[in-house]
Write a structure and sequence with these properties.
69% of the residues lie in helices and 0% in strands. The protein has helices at 4-15, 20-27, 31-38, 47-57, 61-67, 73-81, 84-92, 97-109. Helix 1 crosses helix 5 and helix 4 (47-57) packs across helix 5. With 111 residues, the chain is mainly α. It contains 8 helices and no strands.
């Protein structure tokens, strides 16, 4: 089975010349689990483990979490409590690239 996260993990691990066993030691999980993730037999690990991996590989945690199809717990409150979020999510897949760029501009203005 193909797994976007598994492929990303394998690629990063090889790029950084880290064995599955060493990665497992650094992250605090069993090395056989790393193999199963990379081969698409197991789901990605919990958020905290993915963030540790991102830090180890000097990658953006959100990129790795997105590949794992996970949402950061810090965003869950906003997603579940802001009444505008459902409306936005219903429309998000219909937005054009130009509209996404404008949304990014508006967000930068608010920083």
């Amino acid at each position: 089975m193909e797994s976007e996260f598994g492929n990303l993990l394998k690629s990063l691990r090889k790029e950084h010349k880290i064995t599955q066993r060493r990665l497992a030691e650094l992250i605090g999980i069993d090395f056989t689990y790393i193999s199963e993730i990379e081969n698409g037999f197991m789901e990605p690990p919990a958020e905290d483990k993915i963030i540790k991996m991102a830090e180890l590989f000097k990658e953006d945690p959100d990129t790795m979490l997105l590949a794992a199809k996970k949402v950061r717990s810090i965003y869950r409150k906003t997603i579940t409590e802001n009444k505008n979020v459902p409306m936005f999510l219903r429309s998000a897949d219909k937005l054009t690239q130009k509209q996404w760029e404008r949304i990014k501009e508006v967000m930068k203005e608010g920083e």
